[in-house]
Specification:
Chain lengths: ~110, ~140
């Protein structure tokens, strides 16, 4: 049941932020909503309820590393689109592998 | 340049595109929860900043822009890539704000639940907007 609640709340929150991004102009500003804390808001709300503040605090610390990986992901997507002329799908899928490597690499180095 | 709303952009998306984003968003949230349950909050927290729906969003932006420009007789393929790249640059700034969100949660989560979430969201929006404004301002000054 918890997974169903997670799925519905996550889907709604992500869709809401994505729609805000759709209607905003200029596009560079709308892009900010591509990195909105939609998944985090739902996950952390449920974590507060189930596990408490200490658990959420640890998740927040790791989220900073995930966000650094996201910044590198965005830079790579930009470069692959503009210089290598990749399609958007190919660029984002290639950069997603970099996100995984950077996020887990930073976690291992900084948090153990 | 002033930030504005263009609600007609909502008509560009088909129902299955909204459904896809809903599905991917829901899936990313479930995965984040399962990872945290299985490997602990230190690993699970990484997935709170996963570019979950960015693949779908960038592809949709590219497609919509290409379609829009080709209707006007312009080179749609190039414009589509440029629009997706611009969106990605914006997301890059947003990710710095996402780190600020994480930092607020790290520091305040043990004090207050609802308060920390509300404050972190405000900090995210403020940092993202400030970075975007500073970026535009720097570009105007340079040119």
């Amino acid at each position: 049941m918890e997974h169903v609640i997670r799925f519905l709340a996550g889907g709604l929150m992500v869709s809401l932020f994505a729609m805000i991004g759709d209607v905003l102009r200029p596009k560079s500003f709308a892009g900010l909503f591509g990195a909105a804390p939609s998944v985090a808001l739902v996950t952390l709300s449920l974590a507060f309820w189930k596990r408490g503040g200490g658990y959420v605090s640890t998740e927040g610390r790791s989220m900073i590393l995930g966000a650094v990986a996201f910044a590198i992901f965005s830079f790579l997507v930009c470069q692959l689109l503009m210089r290598a002329r990749f399609s958007a799908l190919a660029a984002t899928l290639t950069a997603a592998a970099a996100w995984l490597a950077v996020a887990f690499g930073l976690k291992q180095v900084l948090l153990g | 340049m002033v930030v504005r709303f263009r609600f007609s952009a909502l008509k560009q998306s088909r129902w299955y595109e909204y459904a896809l984003r809903f599905f991917l968003g829901g899936l990313a949230t479930v995965v984040a929860g399962v990872v945290a349950d299985s490997w602990g909050p230190a690993v699970g927290g990484l997935f709170l900043a996963v570019p979950a729906i960015f693949c779908a969003s960038a592809t949709l932006i590219e497609k919509h822009e290409r379609r829009r420009k080709e209707k006007k007789g312009l080179r749609g393929k190039e414009r589509g890539k440029n629009a997706a790249a611009l969106d990605s640059a914006g997301a890059g700034l947003g990710s710095v704000a996402l780190a600020a969100f994480g930092a607020v949660m790290w520091l305040l989560a043990q004090e207050t639940a609802a308060g920390s979430l509300a404050f972190a969201t405000m900090v995210w929006l403020a940092v993202a907007t400030l970075l975007w404004w500073a970026g535009r301002h720097a570009r105007i000054v340079r040119t």
